[in-house]
């Protein structure tokens, strides 16, 4: 249980207690914190700016400046609160929602759990769903924090087949029992328990999803037309917590933090196979109509105030939802932050069709 044991340790982690895959990384900072949902809505200011509604539903966490447009600029200047642990983090993080499709063809949204309960902090266990966010500074050389106006997208919602080169970029883990059973390795690191596609059998403890963003930047553009070209993976391919680092390509020489999202889907309500399709196929669909999981994608808009994130990336030994010289807030304050829903749709009842995709 090295992976789970590691995160139960205090910030000052001794070399003896450090998992073997961390010992070779040298100095490490891993900001790991939960963000409660700020809104569930059919908006996408990156791919469909200004569109109300956008084609599919998203779950959004972070600052309350989130809106359908979010033009270039300093997002933190337009926000007054955040649902994240660090009170200077007004960024927005979002992914597509997951739905269960019953035999009669109706859909119901799958709610999210918090992070694994053995991580004993309020922003793991009390966010009431939402997303767990990682910023890791363990790559060789200086890590440069994102700049105001920076944004990026990872993944391809049109993909329905696996991409072997990206197996460490996007993965799922089927929890084998209650209380997040089977969580014994770093994300996307164990081919025996991590899959590129959605699990094909009922998961007794739910399904965990991890998405890794690129770690190299061209140093010039805060965005690009496809929201991807200004960033790149190392020449060795997507990194994970077993292979942090790698050389950046000459076109994207600036090292940026390893950003990762983690979502735990509470699929336990839907584990009765008598409710699954008669052909035995798995019944979970992302809000853009994908039941393979290969099209999973995630969006990011940077919104840390001032140099707050750079302070974290320059620190050493920071683990979890606290770090020296970085401001935090209470979970109660975080959960009071919200954004008004713009598209009036049912998020919790049974639906005849997926919102947007089939309506």
UniProtKB/TrEMBL annotation:
Pfam families: DUF1996 (PF09362). The keyword tRNA processing does not apply. It comes from the Eukaryota. Keywords: Signal. Residues 44-304 form the DUF1996 domain. Residues 1-15 form the signal peptide. The keyword Signal applies. PANTHER family: DUF1996 DOMAIN-CONTAINING PROTEIN, PTHR43662. This is DUF1996 domain-containing protein. It comes from Westerdykella ornata. The lineage of its organism: Eukaryota, Fungi, Dikarya, Ascomycota, Pezizomycotina.
């Amino acid at each position: 249980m090295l992976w789970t044991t590691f995160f139960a340790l205090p910030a000052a982690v001794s070399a003896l207690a450090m998992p073997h895959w961390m010992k070779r990384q040298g100095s490490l900072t891993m900001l790991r914190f939960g963000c409660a949902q700020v809104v569930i809505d059919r908006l996408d200011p990156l791919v469909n700016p200004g569109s109300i509604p956008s084609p599919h539903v998203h779950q959004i966490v972070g600052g309350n400046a989130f809106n359908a447009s979010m033009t270039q600029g300093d997002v933190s200047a337009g926000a007054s609160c955040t649902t994240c642990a660090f009170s200077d983090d007004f960024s927005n993080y979002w992914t597509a929602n997951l739905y269960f499709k019953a035999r009669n063809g109706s859909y119901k949204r799958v709610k999210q759990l918090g992070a694994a309960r053995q991580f004993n902090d309020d922003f793991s266990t009390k966010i009431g769903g939402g997303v767990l966010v990682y910023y890791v500074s363990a790559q060789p050389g200086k890590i440069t924090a994102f700049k105001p106006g920076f944004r990026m997208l990872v993944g391809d919602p049109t993909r329905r087949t696996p991409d072997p080169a990206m197996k460490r970029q996007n993965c799922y883990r089927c929890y084998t029992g209650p209380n997040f059973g089977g969580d014994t390795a770093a994300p996307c690191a164990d081919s025996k328990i991590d899959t590129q596609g959605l699990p094909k059998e009922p998961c007794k403890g739910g399904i965990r999803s991890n998405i890794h963003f690129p770690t190299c930047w061209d140093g010039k553009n805060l965005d690009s037309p496809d929201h991807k070209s200004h960033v790149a993976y190392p020449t060795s391919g997507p990194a994970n917590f077993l292979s942090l680092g790698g050389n950046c390509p000459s076109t994207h020489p600036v090292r940026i933090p390893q950003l990762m999202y983690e979502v735990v889907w509470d699929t336990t309500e839907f584990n009765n196979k008598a409710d699954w399709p008669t052909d035995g196929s798995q019944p979970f669909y992302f809000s853009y109509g994908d039941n393979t999981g290969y099209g999973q994608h995630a969006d990011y808009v940077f919104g840390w105030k001032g140099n707050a994130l750079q302070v974290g990336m320059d620190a050493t030994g920071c683990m979890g939802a606290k770090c020296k010289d970085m401001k935090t807030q209470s979970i109660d304050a975080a959960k009071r932050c919200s954004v008004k829903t713009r598209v009036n749709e049912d998020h919790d009842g049974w639906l005849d069709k997926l919102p947007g995709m089939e309506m």
